[in-house]
Amino acid sequence: MKIAVLSLFPEMFDSFLSASILGRARAEGLLDVRPVDIRPYSDKKHKNTDDYPFGGGAGMVMMAQPIVDAVRDLRAQGYAGPCIYLSPRGAPLTQKKVVALSAQEGMILLCGHYEGVDQRAIDLVVDEEISLGDFVLTGGEVAAMALIDAVARYVPGVLGSGESTEEESFSDGLLEYPQYTRPREFRGREVPEVLLNGNHALIGRWRREQALRLTRERRPELLETAPLDKKDRAFLKTLEEKEE
C-alpha cells in the first residue's frame, strides 16, 4: 500500500514511521508511506500556504492552490486511492471503514491546520473527510498517524499472525475480552481458572461473555448492531436480571 501524507510539518512523522511494526513493515516493503511538505507547492514568493479568511474571523485558512497542486502532482506520480482530509467535521472513523480502506491500493491524506482548509481545495481534490471523534486537534497529523496505524494492521504481512486482527475490539462488533499472561498469580490476583483448564470451548464462551459484559457496560450502543446469537442474548438477559 502506498500512502502520501500532505502536511505543513512532515518531520512529525519521522519517529512514528521508523519504529515498531510500521518501521518493520516499511523496511520489508509492505508499506510505503511518504510524508510530503505542502510548502514547496506554493506559488507565492515566500511559499506562503495560508491567508486571512474572507468574511473575517480569528486565525488563518490554508490556501487552496498549494493543496490542489500537491494532490494533482501526487496523482501524476501514481498515487491512487481516495484523498482523505482529516477533519473534525468528517465522518467518524470506524473499524468497518478501516477495513475498507485497507483494501485500497493507497491513499492521500491531507492534514489541516489553523482554522482549516479553503473549501475549494476540498471541492476539487478531496474525496472524503474523516474524523477521529468529537474533539479538535491542533493539526491533522496525529489523526493521520492514527488512521495509518489502524489501516496498516490489515495490510497482508504487516502483523506477524493472521489471527491478530480477528479477535480484538470491534472485529465482531464488540469490545475485546480481558487478556492475561504469566505469572498465574500477581499481588493477590489470580488468572481466571477457565483460562487454565485447556478446554477451548469453555474458554471461547468465557471470552465471548466477557466481551458482551464489557460492551454492555462501556459501549452499550454497539450491541444494537453486533451479531448476537441465542446464547449471547440469554447471557445479556441474565446480566439485566442481576441488576433488577
Characterization of this structure:
This protein is an alpha/beta fold. It contains eight helices and nine strands. A five-stranded parallel β-sheet has the order 2-1-6-5-7. Strands 3-4 form a two-stranded antiparallel sheet. A two-stranded antiparallel sheet has the order 8-9. The longest helix has 19 residues.
Low-confidence stretches: none
Task: Classify the beta-strand content into a percent band.
Answer: 15-25%
Tally of separate helices: 8
User: Which structural class matches the secondary elements?
Assistant: alpha/beta
Question: How many DSSP E strands?
Answer: 9
Distance between the termini: 51 Å
> Mind describing the biggest β-sheet?
5 strands, parallel
Strand order of the largest sheet: 2-1-6-5-7
What value does the Rg take, in angstroms?
Answer: 23 Å
Q: What would you call the shape?
A: elongated
Order of helices and strands: EHHEEEHEHEHEHEEHH
Mean pLDDT: 95
Question: What's the helical proportion of residues?
Answer: 25-40%
Secondary structure layout plus pairing:
Layout: E1 2-7, H1 14-18, H2 20-27, E2 32-37, E3 50-51, E4 61-62, H3 64-76, E5 83-92, H4 95-102, E6 106-111, H5 119-125, E7 128-131, H6 141-152, E8 185-186, E9 189-190, H7 200-218, H8 230-243
Parallel strand pairs: 1-2, 1-6, 5-6, 5-7
Antiparallel strand pairs: 3-4, 8-9
Descriptive key words:
single chain, alpha/beta, two-stranded antiparallel sheet, 9 strands, 16% strand
